[in-house]
Amino acid sequence: MRNISRTIAAALLLAVGAHPGLAQKTVGLLPGLGEGPSDWLDTYNALTASSLQLSTVFRPTLSTSAVIQSQTSTLVSNHSSDLGDSTILIGHSLGGLVGRFRNQQQTLTGVATIGTPNYGAPILTNGPELIEFYGDMLYNILVVIDDFLFGDNYWLYDSYLYNAYDLVASAEYYAYTI
C-alpha cells in the first residue's frame, strides 16, 4: 500500500497543482479492508509537506469490519466539519466504496478510488445464491453421511448397483437372443 500511496500522492499533487481552482480543498484518505490511517501516512506526509494550499488532509479511523453505511456514518460523525462541497475523498478498496457512498449522500468535489471493485464484490453481490448453493450442498452431504452411518444404503443401491444390475441383465438378455 505504501508504494500505491506515494503514486497517488504524486498524481494528486500534479492534478491539484495543475488546476489552481482546486486549491483550498480538503482531502480525506480512506483506508481499505484491514487497513487503517497508518497505511496512508506516506501520502499524508507528502500532501501536508507540499506547497499545495490544502485546507485539511485527514485520515479517518474506520471499522473495516462494519458495513459501508456504518463506516460512512462514522466518517460523518468524526469528520463532519471536513466533509463538504470542497472535499476530495481518496479511498483504497473498501475505502473507495465508502467514499462513493458518501458522495451519493452529499456532493463532494470528487472521489478517487484505488483498487475498488467497480462492479461490486462478487461474493457480496451473489451472497444469497452462494448461501443457498452451499446450504444445499451441505444438506446433501449430511444426508449421505446419515444414510451411510445408519444403514440406509438405498442411495448406494439406487445409484451404482441398480445401474450395474441393468447392465448385467441387458447383457444376459442379449446373450440369450443371439
Characterise this structure:
This protein is an alpha/beta fold. It folds into two domains: 2-119, Alpha/Beta hydrolase fold, catalytic domain (Rossmann fold, 3-Layer(aba) Sandwich), CATH 3.40.50; 126-177. Helix content is 57%, strand content 11%. It has helices spanning 2-18, 41-49, 68-79, 94-105, 122-125, 127-149, 154-177, and strands at 26-30, 56-58, 87-92, 110-114. A four-stranded parallel β-sheet has the order 2-1-3-4, sandwiched between helices. Helix 4 links the parallel strand 3 and strand 4. The radius of gyration is 29 Å and the shape is rod-shaped.
Topology (SSEs and partners):
Blueprint: H1 2-18, E1 26-30, H2 41-49, E2 56-58, H3 68-79, E3 87-92, H4 94-105, E4 110-114, H5 122-125, H6 127-149, H7 154-177
Parallel strand pairs: 1-2, 1-3, 3-4
Helix pairs in contact: 1-2, 3-4
Low-confidence stretches: none
Find the structural class using helix and strand composition.
Answer: alpha/beta
CATH homologous superfamily classification of the largest domain: Alpha/Beta hydrolase fold, catalytic domain
Q: Separation of termini?
A: 77 Å
What would you say the CATH architecture of the largest domain is? 3-Layer(aba) Sandwich
Number of helices: 7
Major sheet characteristics: 4 strands, parallel
N-to-C SSE string, H for helix and E for strand: HEHEHEHEHHH
Q: Give the proportion of residues in helices.
A: 55-70%
Shape: rod-shaped
Q: What is the strand content?
A: 5-15%
Mean pLDDT: 75
Q: Mind telling me the C-alpha Rg?
A: 29 Å
CATH topology of the largest domain: Rossmann fold
